[in-house]
Amino acid sequence: MTAHLTALARGLAPPRGFVGSSLAAPPVEAIARASAELWQDPHAALRYSPAPGFPVLREWIARREGVDPGRIVMTNGGMHGLTLAVLTVVERGTTVAVDDPVFPGFLWALEVATPHILPVPVLADGFDVEHLAAKLAAGARIAAAYTVADFHNPAQVSLSAAKRRALIDLAELHGFHVIVDDPYRELRFAGRDQGVAVFHDSDRVIHVNSFTKTLGPGWRVGWLVLPEHLVDPVVGLRGRLDVHTSSVTQAIVERLVTAGDELFDQTVRAARTIYRQRAEVLVDALHQHLPGALDVQLPEGGLFLWARLADDGIDPAELFRRAVAAGVVYQPGEYFAAEPGRGSADRHLRFSYSEGTPGELREAVRRLATAFPGGGS
Ligand SMILES: Cc1ncc(COP(=O)(O)O)c(C=O)c1O
User: Fold this and answer.
1) Does any ligand 1 atom lie closer than 6 A to the CB of residue 153?
2) Which end of the chain is more exposed for a tag (fewer CB within 10 A), N or C?
3) Whose CA is nearest to atom 4 of ligand 1?
């Protein structure tokens, strides 16, 4: 049996596509109830939906986002939201600034418009806004900038409140759009929320979110918070592409979140508790079995630990081969490099702690330790 410290391993899974991401605590009974209720009126259940989505669901999301419901457009999950954002604000052949390391799914989405990227390092407080400002001052031109604002995939960090403001100021100064990808925002279990109002107050920001990390990826239900001037273009695009998000899944998700018994908040709270415990177990086990071998920071939320090899003498490719042979997989950092081959992420290992029980995580680390020179302790 292979122990998993990742949801997606190069060479062990298709190079494109997502696996895993099962939820820590799915509200199974409530889902069954909501689904059964839906089929009491099959004609209503199977109707077309308004193109931007179900009004009550959009209102619920809008209240939580602190925006007018007219700015919410439902999507078929976060990836769909990213592609809609790219198709709307990135002209063919222009350049887009992206996180480095980057969530590779965004680069796949970007391929519909352009191969040109400007990699921007992700630091301990997120996207390096000063780096981008220097590039723009030196003459670079971009159509958009892309970043994961909270609990970055893979880099685990969040964009600080000060840098959120600075990024928006830069976008307003230079006239580019910011695509803010935020699927992990609800999963904070430590530290301080850095805020989203600054994004929603700007007409330069497309905010992309989804229920994937809270209610599950299989729903394929997400949403965009759009500036008012982009609502009609995005809804028009939907008319040409897929008309709207499935009425059936929207209706069930709408029932779940508006159930009146705080089901959504309870589900998220339960997930946070489980993820916090798993993150702590993983970091403890790494300190115990591989003392000093990896630079790690305890995550404040999300699903990932972005560990850096402390010893520059270790060959990451050889380590990965030995780890797989020992029966443990993780995601090698190079997979997330904005520009493959430039080495920006290849000293890192991305561990996912969401899916293993504490016992499985400890066992995975014990096996990982045997892959290191000297076999760990
Ligand atoms: C940063 C980021 N954005 C978007 C997605 C895609 O989410 P969805 O399943 O809602 O398409 C993921 C999935 O892992 C992700 O990590």
Assistant:
1) yes
2) N
3) 78
